[in-house]
Design goal:
The complex is a heterodimer of chains A (about 110) and B (about 110). Chain A is built from no helices and eleven strands. With about 110 residues, chain A is mainly β. Chain B starts with a strand and ends with a strand. The radius of gyration of chain B is 14 Å and the shape is globular. By secondary structure, chain B is mainly beta. In chain B, strands 2, 5, 6, 10, 11 and 12 form a six-stranded mixed sheet that branches. Chain B has a four-stranded antiparallel sheet with strand order 3-9-8-7, with no helix packed on it. Chain B has a two-stranded antiparallel sheet with strand order 1-4. The chains are: A mainly beta (about 110), B mainly beta (about 110). At the A-B interface, strand 4 and strand 5 of A face strand 5, strand 6 and strand 10 of B.
């Protein structure tokens, strides 16, 4: 198993550009989520999904969209990038939310100029 | 609402020192509790977990006991190594709020000096 994979590893955008961060898992996990990690802020939940076709907002959803058309994939879209979205983004998955381990991808470091 | 509070870092210790990183939580019901570790340049990975009161999670010499009476899940290790230098996150899930969110603390950076 590859686990949770994320692409790209690094990305530089200009303000106003759009892009999609890719996340995939091959463990047949129902629960997937996106976090951003900023210095002094820890991890903040952006969006999450409890299964294909179901998504919901986390703590900081503004400026981001997600969809979950398959169990495996959970892309994160930045509609119009802003410097405030400069961060490290982590995707995670688990069998379910309650008791199971969260498996994290290696992260995408995004810089918005 | 549900929350996790952990001690602020950075924490700097000498090799072979004893470690305690405090974590307390606020939650409805009976959440599961976790410690995750993030090594430099990597994603988070599960270090240990406990799913009910008085359970003790352990891994790699680290331990934490689920204390419902004090709503705590402190991380301990008797003798730290340089390779333990990382950021440690306390987390909870499965509360009665049922809002399907996993809640993380802000992380504690640990530096171990040789």
């Amino acid at each position: 198993n590859a686990g949770v994979t994320q692409t790209p590893k690094f990305q530089v955008l200009k303000t106003g550009q759009s892009m999609t961060l890719q996340c995939a898992q091959d463990m047949n996990h129902e629960y997937m989520s996106w976090y951003r990690q900023d210095p002094g802020m820890g991890l903040r939940l952006i969006h999450y999904s409890v299964g294909a076709g179901i998504t919901d907002q986390g703590e900081v959803p503004n400026g981001y969209n997600v969809s979950r058309s398959t169990t495996e994939d959970f892309p994160l879209r930045l509609l119009s990038a802003a410097p405030s979205q400069t961060s490290v983004y982590f995707c995670a998955s688990s069998i379910d939310r309650d008791t199971d381990t969260q498996y994290f991808g290696p992260g995408t470091r995004l810089t918005v100029l | 609402g549900d929350s996790v509070t952990q001690m602020e870092g950075p924490v700097t210790l000498s090799e072979e020192a004893c470690l305690t990183i405090n974590c307390t939580y606020t939650a409805t019901g009976y959440p599961s509790l976790f410690w995750y570790v993030q090594y430099p340049g990597e994603g988070l990975q599960l270090l240990l977990k406990a799913t009910k009161a008085d359970d003790k999670g352990s891994n790699k010499g680290f331990e934490a006991t689920y204390r419902k009476e004090t709503t705590s899940f402190h991380l301990e290790k008797g003798s730290v190594q340089v390779s333990d230098s990382a950021v440690y996150f306390c987390a909870l899930s499965g509360t009665m709020n049922r809002d399907d969110k996993i809640i993380f603390g802000k992380g504690t950076r640990l530096h171990i000096l040789p």
